[in-house]
Here is the input.
Amino acid sequence: LRKNIEEYIHRIDKLRKEGSRRTSKYFECIRCNEESGKDNEDDESKRALEEELEASQTRNVSLLEEIRQVRVKILQEKEEKTVMIAGMSNLHTTIDELRARNEELEYGRSIVGIERNIEVESETIKELEKLAKNSEEARETAVLQAIELRANSQKLSKKCSEVEEELTEEKHRIDRLEEELKSSSEKLENVNREKIETMTELTVVRHKLNVMKKEKETVVPVEDAKIGGDENSAEELVEARRTIDELTNNQFSLLETMRMMETKYDESSQRMDELLDANNG
Here is the structure.
């Protein structure tokens, strides 16, 4: 509104200046016409100036009316603001009264609550006094229980320490067993390898023994044939017997080797069983 009023005042000043200028010009034209004797010739210019002057006055009147309306609105707003301020003042007063009333009510409630609490506390004190008369035995029992619990706690602490030590030892033992298990696995692999090699050697020995048996069976009939025949020279007989002795010795040697292989195989099997039992354990 203030901005509008300032604009209206500015426009009015501008129109006043314009009207004064045109009025001055109008009177100057009239004076010039009077001096020159040309009144009738400038009637049209006079009428134009008069119309323009009337229009300017009309605009001035409308602007004044607008200014009056703006002033009326300003007065109305001032009255409304005054009413609102009065209402706010009354509202603050009402709020203060309500706060005071609320404080009084809260104070009264607190007093009632305190009285109730006092009654409850009085009853509690009476009950505690009754319990205090019979609390000596309970106190002694509680002391004994506390002593017993402390002793049990110490025992449990000691037991926990022992268990921790046992767990540590068990862990070390498990680590050792894991190492032994690893070593046993390697040994088992070696024994298994030796067993396979022994089985292979035993198979070879058995094959050689069978070959020698067949050779012996072949040589003995030849010797018997030479001994029983007409052509039995001493050299051939000695050679045949030497061959039989060699075959017999080789057979005994192979049998001994075979027994050694079987013994080695049995030992390897026993060691493998022991290692398997140890691993399973």
User: Anything to note?
Assistant: The radius of gyration is 71 Å. The chain has two domains: 2-131, 182-280. The chain has a mean pLDDT of 71. The longest helix spans residues 135-228.
